[in-house]
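A reminder from the course coordinator: this example appears on the midterm review sheet, so study it carefully.

Given structure:
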C-alpha cells in the first residue's frame, strides 16, 4: 500500500472530503506550509502575521476541500488565497493606523482645547478681577474707566459724555490705571 506522502494533492483532498481523514489533510498542508509561510512572511515582513495568514488559508481548505478538486495547481491556488489574505491584512493595518492617527489627532485637539479652555477660564477670571477692581474705584475714576474700557470710548467722547475736559479725562484715566496697576500687581506677575 502506498504511503500518504506518495498520494497526489487531488487524492489527499478527495480522501479528506469523503471521509474527513485529517491525516490526509495534514499531509497535504505540510507540503505547502513552508513555501506559504516564506512567501507571506517576505510579502508582509512579519513572520507572526504570516503564520496567522497561512493558518487562515489552511482553514479555507479544511472547510471546503472540494473547491480545490477542479484546480490545476493547488500550490498556485494556496498562494493566491494567502496573497489575498495578506493584502486584506495590510489594508486592515492601514485602516487601523489611520484610525489611530485620527484618535491621536482628536486627543491632541481635545488636549489643546482643554488647554485653551483652561486659558480661557484664566482669562475670564482675570477679566472678572479687573472689573471688580474697577468697580472698587471712587465714582469719578470708575466712570471714566468704564467708558474707556467697557464702552471703548475715546478721551474726547468721554469728555463729551461727562462734561469734563479732555485733559481732565486723561488725568483721571491715568490715576485709575495707577491704582489698578497697584491692586492687580499679582496678575501681572503671573503673566
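Designed residues:
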Amino acid at each position: 500500500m502506498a504511503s500518504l506522502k506518495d498520494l497526489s494533492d487531488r487524492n489527499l483532498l478527495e480522501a479528506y472530503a469523503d471521509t474527513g481523514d485529517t491525516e490526509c489533510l495534514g499531509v497535504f498542508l505540510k507540503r505547502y506550509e513552508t513555501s506559504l509561510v516564506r512567501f507571506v512572511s517576505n510579502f508582509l515582513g512579519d513572520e507572526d502575521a504570516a503564520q496567522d495568514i497561512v493558518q487562515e488559508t489552511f482553514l479555507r481548505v479544511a472547510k471546503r476541500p472540494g473547491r480545490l478538486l477542479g484546480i490545476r495547481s493547488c500550490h498556485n491556488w494556496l498562494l493566491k488565497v494567502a496573497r489575498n489574505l495578506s493584502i486584506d491584512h495590510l489594508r486592515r493595518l492601514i485602516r487601523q493606523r489611520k484610525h489611530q492617527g485620527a484618535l491621536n489627532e482628536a486627543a491632541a485637539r481635545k488636549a489643546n482645547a482643554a488647554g485653551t479652555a483652561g486659558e480661557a477660564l484664566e482669562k475670564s477670571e482675570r477679566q472678572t478681577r479687573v472689573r471688580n477692581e474697577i468697580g472698587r474705584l471712587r465714582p469719578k475714576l470708575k466712570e471714566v474707566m468704564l467708558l474707556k474700557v467697557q464702552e471703548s470710548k475715546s478721551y474726547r467722547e468721554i469728555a463729551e459724555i461727562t462734561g469734563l475736559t479732555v485733559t481732565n479725562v486723561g488725568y483721571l484715566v491715568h490715576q485709575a490705571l495707577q491704582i489698578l496697576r497697584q491692586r492687580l500687581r499679582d496678575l501681572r506677575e503671573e503673566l
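The longest helix spans residues 74-136. The domain at 137-191 is CATH 1.10.10 (Arc Repressor Mutant, subunit A).
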